Amino acid sequence: MFDPDRATRVLVPLAGLGLATVFLIVDAELGEPAPAAAREGVPGPPATVESDHGLHLPGPPTVTVRLVGAVGRRARFSCGVDGPYRLVHGARDASDAGRDAVAAGDGLADVTVGATGGRVTLNGVPFGRTLTLVPERGAVVEVGDRRYRGTLVLEAGEDGRVTASNRVDVEEYVAGVLFAEMPERFDTAAHRAQAVAVRTYALARTLEGKTLRDDQGSQVYQGLDRETEEGRRVVLSTRGEVLTWEGRVFPAYFHSTCGGRTSSARDVFGPNAPAPISASVDCGGCDGTRWSRWRRTLRGEDLARLYHGSFGPTLGARVERTDPSGRVLSLEIRDAAGEVIDRPVADRFRNDYNRGRPLDESLLSAWFRLRPGGGGATIAEGRGFGHGVGLCQYGADGLADRGADYREVLATYYPGARLERAYD
Ligand SMILES: [Zn+2]
Residue 263 Cα, ligand 1 centroid: separation in angstroms? Predict the structure, then answer.
């Protein structure tokens, strides 16, 4: 706790942060109170009890989401809060914020966050290495042009950059992901299945002690402004519901469109994936949808550019190996002399080829076949969009249209998984 008797109180003039009604209390060294220092970094996972009946948590856990998409790699960004707040040292969530504060006030607008000497700075005023902005009485934090429930944790890195993370109740997190990841026009049963998958993935990562990202490295999370009344109803109607396998939550991957058959996580992510995401199942729900079939022309000069400098002119590409679902594992790239110049795995090739291209020119999945086109081009005919593991979103909507409820949707894409309530 902050000990006012042992610290030198410094009331920074209001103009110091350029804020209204702020007072700042710091100790003379601008050091961090000892208990808060012990909380540095990401707090450990919540206590869990696993029994024969599965997973039981005392309540919705807090998840930590690194705001990579919102902040990117910028050295400085703005934050604020639209009501009462406190600033506390260490990484805190709302339930763990205590009463200690190094500063407090009512309303912060466009405060510039930076870092210097391993400390977070707000409008140039240095604090400790880790600082949490705790909104109070219904206020919400702002980062750039996005608003978030929960607290905002700022941490200075060694490289002079500062990272921003949102610590938020998992139910509120799910509400901020749902319509960032699935179209609002989809059926309610598809939305419910998606909410369970998002919650399951978030809990699996959190119980491993991991931090989520707000971009496609985890699940796209855009905070309060992505919530809608309908989305909140969907989340509430599935509150606490997660999928488990052998009593444990697992990363319940999902993707846009499988193209007819999902892929096995063991082929995509490695041999240790749990059974419900390792099945390759017939979808039947995404036929005829936007990305179920696609065709792209890979121009010879674009392929050549990929290998420019390392190899001679590129002649073309052909599929070398596929997995049992038909998705490409590796390709063979030959130059004009017919020599094999590279055997890239499909994901690397797709990432390299797609960089900087719009969707309608990109290879949308690893499920494609190649044939020579005219003028040195290669034609790719493909199916689906995304890695193909777990729930197929367009398929879920298709099944829901035919009357499937969310439990049936989940049972289709995560066969063998159990749907259970992890907390009330
Ligand atoms: Zn599908």
Answer: 10
Question: How many domains does the chain fold into?
Answer: 3
Residues 126 and 195 in one domain: no
Distance 288 CA to ligand 1 centre (A): 10
Ligand 1 centroid, distance to 289 Cα (angstroms): 9
Q: Is residue 107 within 8 Å of 82, Cβ to Cβ?
A: yes
Across 393-421, b (16+ Cβ under 10 Å) vs e yields: bbbbbbbbeeebebeebbbbbbeebbbbe
Q: Is the pTM of this model over 0.90?
A: no
- Domain holding 244, by residue range, is 171-287+390-421
- Shared domain check, 66 and 164: yes
149 shares its domain with 76 = yes
With vertex at residue 130, the alpha carbon angle to CA 124 and CA 135, rounded to the nearest 5 degrees, is 85
User: Could you report the average pLDDT of every consecutive run of 10 residues in the chain (424 residues)?
Assistant: 31 36 36 32 42 74 93 84 95 84 92 93 94 95 95 91 95 98 98 98 95 94 96 98 95 97 90 92 96 93 75 75 92 85 89 94 96 87 96 98 97 97 94
Residues 34 and 129 in one domain: yes
C-alpha 364 – ligand 1 centre gap (Å): 14
Interval between CA 236 and ligand 1 midpoint (Å): 26
Place of tokens 């409008």: 123
Q: Using the mean position of ligand 1's atoms as its centre, give its distance from the Cα of residue 416 in Å.
A: 18
- Residues less than 5 Å from ion ligand 1, measured at CB: 258, 283, 286, 392, 395
CA of residue 262 to ligand 1 center, whole Å: 7
Question: How is residue 403 annotated by DSSP?
Answer: T
Measured in Å, residue 248 CA sits from the centre of ligand 1 at: 26
